[in-house]
Amino acid sequence: MVSIKIQGLQEKTQLKVETTQSSFIKESYSAEEKDFMGVSAADNFFPLQKSRPERCSRIREEKLQFYEIVQGSVIYSAFLDYRFKDQTFIRMISIFPSYSESPQMYCHFLDLRTEEHFTSVVEIEELGTNDGFTFQGYLSSCDLPDEIDSYTLCSVNVSMEPESFRQTDENTKQIPLHVSEDQPVDTETYGLCIPPISGEISAGRLVEFLELSEILGVSHFVFYDANLSDKTLRVLQYYQEIGAVTLNPWALPQNIASNIQDDGQTVALNDCLYRNIDRFKYVAFNKLEEFIVPLQSKRTLEIFETESDEDTAGLCFQGFTFDTSKFEEKRPHILLYTQRYAARTKAPTEESARCIVSPKNVFSLELNAISNPSETFYITRNVETSVGHVFRYGECNYDECNSSFQDLTMVKYREELEKRFNLTMIYLQQYRVV
């Protein structure tokens, strides 16, 4: 029969649902349970497959999407979190209604060796702030039972039902688990996560952003496609083909898209954090019009090497704006916008602060701040403005915009940037990408 044991594990509640061999299960369930789940319900939800590559290839090749658990409650992605000595967790990037009680969910697992079923309670934490929107991002977590071999785990079943035998297509979703590729962590460069973007972005602006960011030390970019134009997609796909870009779909459900702050950017950025936790030693987060720029060296990563230690969650930089709504009379002939505009705000703006993090040391974050380190002793260090800034290029509507001065820091990148920009644009035009 089925027995449920309540166990305390790291002050969390875990439900352990034990069953025996599947043949015994079919004989032992009550008539009501059989009618509810069907004869082979457990087999359907936990299919036994021959090998790990065969078992996981179909699931992990599925296109990223939002899985609706109940109406208005969705999960985008799931990750194994090995960072804590005594317990492994499943972390799920989620969106739930912000002004009603969140659904109680459960993670269901099957031990492939014994065919025992295990269930863990899902706990949730808010991601970022919410300024009156109907939906908000959450980090959902459940314990991975000790009996489950994480190496063989391809997905997690998330359900509203606490009992495995009551899982159905209607109340349960199979969420693929992201697993990092078997490759060493990149310590020489850093990854960059960009919030969701949509519409058409000029090829020149996009190429300038990518090429200058690479000069500054970025080796890989993660974008979230919230309905980009075909022309913009072609440019990003070129960079994707040469291994510089990962392009993830970001098709929010219609009822959520217009009722969540900033197109769900905090949700996407935390997905990017967990997606790259084993890929890069450092990961940065900024928008297309922003650059984290060192003042005493040429590469941004050198700041991390001198300003941080093993207890650092991340470095956060103050942001200054170059107001591109003002015509630069002395430099209109310069094509590159990071070279054309030289007048920036004297004072930093809080909204433009950006961070580079050690992803293993961060639990959750926002675009301009580290919300929670993964351990209480990890600290966020604020970088002095004499060491590095965030430079933002765009319209300036803050009080700080009334006072500006000339800053020629970006001139040191001009020669290399022009060469890279011109070569890339020639290639894209030659092959009719743009």
TrEMBL record:
It comes from the Eukaryota. Signal peptide: none annotated. It is an enzyme of class 2 (transferase). Its EC number is 2.4.1.-. It is a single-pass membrane protein. GO terms for molecular function: glycosyltransferase activity. InterPro entries: Glyco_transf_92. One of its GO terms (cellular component) is cytoplasm. The keyword Hydrolase does not apply. Keywords: Glycosyltransferase, Membrane, Transferase, Transmembrane, Transmembrane helix. It is found in: Membrane. Its main location: membrane. Belongs to the glycosyltransferase 92 family. This is Glycosyltransferase family 92 protein. It comes from Pocillopora damicornis (Cauliflower coral).
